[in-house]
Amino acid sequence: MLNVSHLFEPLKLRDTLIPNRVWVSPMCQYSAHNGVPNDWHLVHLGQFALGGAGLVIAEATAVVPEGRISPADTGLWNDEQASAWRRITDFLRAHGAVPAIQLAHAGRKASTAVPWEGEHTVPETEGGWPTVSSTNQPFGSLAAPRALTTDEVAALPEHFAAAARRAETAGFDVVELHFAHGYLAHQFYSPLVNDRTDRYGGSFDNRVRLLLEITEAVRQVWPAHRPLFARISATDWVEGGWTGDDSIRLARLLADRGVDLIDTSSGGAVPDARIPVRPGYQVPFARQIRTEARVPTGAVGLITAPEQAEEIIASGSADAVLLGRAMLRDPHWPLHAADRLRAGNLWPKPYERARLN
């Protein structure tokens, strides 16, 4: 007998119908060459479609070469990259998942080594590059960035818009703007990082100006029938930093400019934040934004059990859950979750022989 499962109800955003509320968070694989995705990305992302995920978000993908977190990140600054993404989006769609991509610029956290080589800036002699930011202050032990000029900041939205155009060519149905985790956009809105005195610094309105300009530029070129997401860090977890109340205010402004869902994460602006990591520790922010800003939200962060995910959706804390490490451990998490919640059979026909119930 089937149960009514909120987790496995479809969600329609604009004209895109997402078959369930179990989504894959963007997770960098540090496996690309010159920004071009390859067989690793096809298999990595494709397994989640076979595993029953409703939406699969490809990793933080740089809109310009210097926006990559590492030299091994994917990009969408040229047509070769867009063409390489196409076979991946075709596979995801053919096997029931909605393909999405996160567009990003890492700012002062760019040009770093891949994680398994330790946290350090890659020198130019080894394929790295000078970094830029809202400030000239470094993040921890990373190399100090150059503060962008006012004109350079004003030019950034068009880079995101150009990448969004290529995302459409590449076959993505959803674009997510990466405004979180201490990367470039977050370096502007966090008062802990932004020390500017021009129109992009100082007041709340000035610090969020770049985000709103990026959103407007992308929404102008991204098809009106397709959803646009934004991932934000809902708090800096540091006294005097960005807060949950700030996030509610920002969420309203983003929604007014065409953002359809706030992917609600936290932290990353500064290296010394004390984050109270525990199961579902970021869910209250998703609920607060959903309730007070009246914007759909996604919840992320140590969501591991089907019953936990079901409760998040059923209680109205979020409209979807985004899983990262849990999906790496078990790419078939949605199949198993649907079975445990008695929500129906999601298993692909070639895999049904392995289903236990």
Task: Please describe what this structure looks like.
- 33% of the residues lie in helices and 15% in strands.
- It is α/β, with parallel strands linked by helices.
- The strands form 3 sheets. An 8-stranded parallel barrel has the order 3-4-5-8-9-10-11-12, surrounded by 7 helices. The protein has a two-stranded antiparallel sheet with strand order 1-2. It has a two-stranded parallel sheet with strand order 6-7.
- Helix 3 runs parallel beside helix 6 and helix 7 crosses helix 8 (283-293).
- The radius of gyration is 19 Å and the shape is globular.
- The relative contact order is 0.14.
Which features does this protein show?
357 residues, alpha/beta, two-stranded antiparallel sheet, 12 strands
Number of helices: 11
The unreliable regions are none
The oligomeric state is single chain
Distance from first to last alpha carbon: 12 Å
Strand order of the largest sheet: 3-4-5-8-9-10-11-12
Architecture blueprint of SSEs:
Elements: E1 11-13, E2 16-18, E3 22-24, H1 39-50, E4 55-62, H2 79-94, E5 98-104, E6 132-133, E7 146-147, H3 150-169, E8 174-179, H4 184-189, H5 204-207, H6 209-221, E9 228-233, H7 244-256, E10 261-265, H8 283-293, E11 297-300, H9 306-314, E12 320-323, H10 325-329, H11 333-340
Parallel strand pairs: 3-4, 3-12, 4-5, 5-8, 6-7, 8-9, 9-10, 10-11, 11-12
Antiparallel strand pairs: 1-2
Helix pairs in contact: 1-2, 3-6, 7-8
